[in-house]
Amino acid sequence: MATRPRPVRRIRSGLAACAVLVAALAAAAPRAVDPPAPAPRAVGPRAFTHPGVLLDRSQLHVLRAHVESGAEPWASAYRAMANSRYAQAGYRPRPVAVVACKPYENPPACTAEREDAVAAYTQALLWSVTGKRAHAEKSVQIMDAWSKVLRDHTEGNAGLQAAWAGSTWARAAEIVRHTYKTSDGSDGWPKDRVARFSHMLRHAYLAEFDVKVADYNGNWDLTMTDAALGIGVFLDDRKVFDQALARFRARVPAYFYLRSDGPLPLAPPGGSADTPEKIRAYWFGQRRFVDGLGQESCRNFEHVGYALAATAHTAETAHHQGVDLYGEVRERLRAATELHSGYQLGGAVPQWLCGGKPELTLGPDLEVVLNHLKNRLHVPVPHTERLVRRTRPAGTDDLFVAWETLTHAGASSAPKLRP
């Protein structure tokens, strides 16, 4: 099997050991099964909901109301965001024409692109909470700076880098484009610059996702899907949106294992992992498979966290567009979040799992999926909930996850806004 390029690694601190993992992995546990996925199909002529990339208008209203009321954990999450470097009035973007990202390296241009996208999103959220036009203008300034000069992504990590930044750009752009108005009611982000930014997303980002990555670690494919779906919504491009749905439906079942898949995990479509031994090698030598195990669990929990975040982001955006991807993978998500959260919390690790030494480096990646499973579906996920509460407020990984305690901590109803 071909060597799989891997993204720049960021080591996160492990959490202190605490509660022991319950016997969720017992062999006698009921067999979990996700509902059968429907055949990929076009969503139809239904118009896209805007804003509708990760957040919709009602969620923006709710988070603002919670912050204004001083409710927790939103108030603390907001303070963390507002005090971050991304929120500074003097933040200056650092655009370049070509973002060249080699594997295992982190050149300044790659860091700058990701951080500037997070800054644009941070400023868009600040605008949503405060109503201060200076924040919307700062977000626009950052996005305009990049759309004016960026032309391409190159080198081995081009696709992943474009996915990390592209997913965040789409969230920022969606909020600003559809909520920012000037005092006379006209669009705050001029149409010609929106068009230029759209051109950048289509040609410098979407073009990078055409590469086939079936033999790469699965967080690549899932992060590309997250970015493509969000960009498709921003561009009002139904073809891009539907292609991302199909990619999600093909890859998620090949990343998060359920025993209903059979004795071995499903192979990514189009990949070279076509024998039992190749599949085990692709899963980093793991030989025993239990509900919720991820393809990269025995690499480290950090990259499983990336995959969980990307899966939840994609399903959340689809949810806002009337497509229930969550329902198709609910049991996989439940099992995966509970398994990894349990060990991250300090549960005793069995010898058969990653040789008894998994790298417990899960990051701030679970707020979105926790909100859907616990608060919308009322599915018990006690380990996930305990871990998330312990690590709040979730900040940013400086890649493509940012401020998700603020945006997705839970309550669907909000106190009345101040006059």
TrEMBL record:
One of its GO terms (molecular function) is lyase activity. Keywords: Lyase, Signal. SUPFAM superfamilies: Chondroitin AC/alginate lyase. It holds the Pfam family Alginate_lyase. Residues 114-252 form the Alginate lyase domain. The keyword Lyase applies. Residues 1-28 form the signal peptide. This is Alginate lyase family protein. It comes from Streptomyces cavernicola. The lineage of its organism: Bacteria, Bacillati, Actinomycetota, Actinomycetes, Kitasatosporales.
